[in-house]
Design goal:
single chain; mainly alpha
Length: 250
Amino acid sequence: MIKSVKLLFNPDLQKIQPEQYLRATGECFGLMIISSLVLTFFFSPELFNDNPILRRLGYNSIFISFLSYVPANYIALIFGVFGVYFAIHYNRYDLLRTRLNNTRLNHVKDKFSIYTNLTYLFSLTAFLLVIFVNPEIYPWANIVIFMQFIFFRGLVVVANYFEYNNPDKFYKNYIIINSITSIIFIGFLLVNYINYDSCLKAGGAGCKNTIPLYLGVFIDYIWIFQGALYTFLPFQGESIKLQYSASFND
C-alpha cells in the first residue's frame, strides 16, 4: 500500500500525477480482496467449499466470492471507502488534465476521457454494494455489480492510454489484451449464470457451470493479474505542475 500511504500523508507538492490515484484505488481494492480471503479462511472456512458463486462458476472467484459475508465485509468496506476516495481525486485531476490538454487531444478522445472518468467513479461506488448484497438471496445482483465494474474499468484503462504521450509496444499490447480479457470474462460470467438458472428452472439436479473450469479460472485470474500489473507498472500520462504562493487578506 505504498502509493496509497504516500498520497494520504506525503503527497508530491511539485506535481500531480493522476494515474497515481488510480493505482492507489487499485491497491485499496486489492486489500479488500486479500482481507476477505483471510477473514473468510479464519471465520467462515466452509464458504470455500460451498457458496452461490462457486456453484455457478465451478470455482471461487477471489475477487467477488467472499466480499458479502461477515466479518470480511466489515473490513472490506473500510478499504473500499478509501478506494472511492482515491477514485474521486483521480477523476478530478484527470478531468483537469484533459481540459488543460484539450488542444492536443482531439474532440473524440477528450469526450471519451471525460465520460470514462465519470462512469468509472460511479462504477467503483456501485461496486461497494457487493458488500451489502447477499448472493444467497440475490445472486444476479451480486454478479451484475461485478460485471459493470469489469466493463467500466476496461474503458478507463483505454482512456488513459489515449492520454499517454508515447505509448510503447508493451503498453499497446497490454491495452489490447486487457480489453479482450474483460469482454471474454463478462461473457463467461453471463453464460454460466444464465445456463445455471435455466437448469434450476427446468428442475434439473446437479446444475453446474457451462464454461469449462480451466477456461473460467484462466480468464478470471489473468484479469486479476492484469489489474495488479497495471497498479505497479509506470503507465502514466502527463503530470500537472503545481505552483504555490502565499497571499494574505487585509
